[in-house]
Design a protein that fits this description.
The structure holds two protein chains of two kinds. Chain A is 75% helix and 0% strand. Chain A has twelve helices and no strands. In chain B, helix 11 runs antiparallel to helix 12. The chains are: A mainly alpha, B mainly alpha.
Amino acid sequence: MRDSVFQTLTPMDRFKGYCSFLYRALQANFTYRSSAFLALLTSIISYCFTILIWRYVYAHPSPRLTISRTAMFVYLPLAFCLNFALTTNIDIRIGQRIRLGLIATDLLKPLDFQFLQMMQALSDAFFNFFLSLGVFIVAVLLLKGNLFPASVEDFLAFLVSVFLAFIIQFSVLFLFIQGIFYTNSSYGISASRLSLHLTFSGISAPLTLYPLILRHIGEWLPFQNIIYVPISIYMGKYHGLALIAALVHQMLWALGMYLLGYWVFKWTLRSIEIQGG
Amino acid sequence: MNELKIYWSVFKSSLQAKMEYKLDFLIGMITSIMLQLAALGLLWVVIHQSPLLGGWTGKEVLFLFGISATALGTAELLFNHIWMLPYYIVMGDLDRLLIYPTPPLPFLLISSPVLHSFGNLLTGMVLLIYCLSHFHEPWYIWMMVPLWSFCGTIIYTSMLVCICSLSFKFIGPYTYNLNFVHSLLQASRYPLSIYPNWLKYLLLFLIPFGAFNFLPGNFIFHKLFGLFGAWIAPVFAALSIWIAKQLWTWGLKNYQSTGT
């Protein structure tokens, strides 16, 4: 039934459907703006402790520190802003809908479920981007212009990199979400992704400061492409071929994770049962 | 005595119900261990750059991580339901609790243990055992550690109750203010001596997480405060319970049901 309706829709119809979903998701985000603002405030407070730890380390420098104090305190606020902008609640939303059985109505819609969720995540990202812009402006004022990109080319490459980071972030989330179909609570699934993100994305420190073994593990995971790579591009750490290689690497992760999510979801759908109560 | 029996049977049945979901138990446990490992990962990165943190070595800091993890795990196992209070106030679900023949606060606290608490408890215990054996601590320290950890559970839960009591006055389905308390607990896993004075005093006196980890740690590793560091945790725990009780009573007086 769903598939036959899907086939009758023109690409333009589908595009309109996705846009309409994105618009409504944005409206919903603006309706709950006080909640989002409180979330931002809590995240800032939490992140301040990380900054304070690094503040202490740089006040008592050791020869092992390979990054200058200025570079570190440019990296940290940028990492915070990017991480907050890419934060999305689709795992919580889908978790609730699975538990309540409302996922059935989502699956009946004649639009691609994965792409619809990406639109939802995009609306979260748009909304959070504007909130984190406030933090960015405060950081620019505090750091007196050090926070600006290294060059226009770096900034343009950064924009591409952030777009790819968004797809990777979404795709990783979507892959983990599949686990919620098999559990009663979404906590475990969400938190396991979060723990990997916290360790390997570079949110708390640039990966160049990591012990070698952690760095090697991180290279085999997609998480560094979400925070560390875009911020390094913004700060002008990649040039010429290295920059292109970093973007291609991100693109491959984005494509690979999206397709993996697609195939795993297809497989998951085969095994779920929806109660008709 | 009867009340204790009621609490125990509520806790037991709630835990049994949750344990029915075996996959959730397993995933929750693995996840909380992963989250602790993520925090230890940052400590590793920091120690890699600066081997001494406020005069504490990495292995000494592990003690702070361990005792905080066990305190958090115990709080999540025994008193976790406080996180739902803001939602209950909004939905009017608290009315149900108020008509039970037992004091509502303890009943609320114990009635929803979470399974990932076992992961935090396990990680914390492993860290503590490693740390205490590494430093060849005497038997009386091994005996004191569970007391400090339980004081931590009491202080953490009391602080959550204090903050949650504000939800009676400032109504909304938000737990962000509780996350603030949680963030402070996470911050107290590092030696307080690395933080600016205002934060150090905040974590020692106002939201006294330092009383159950930093001060006892100072006593164990022969740094500052001497015996004061060993005995202050129960005092702060008792004080925290008293303040939490006062604020809870104040909050309940302000409670207006939704009328639904």
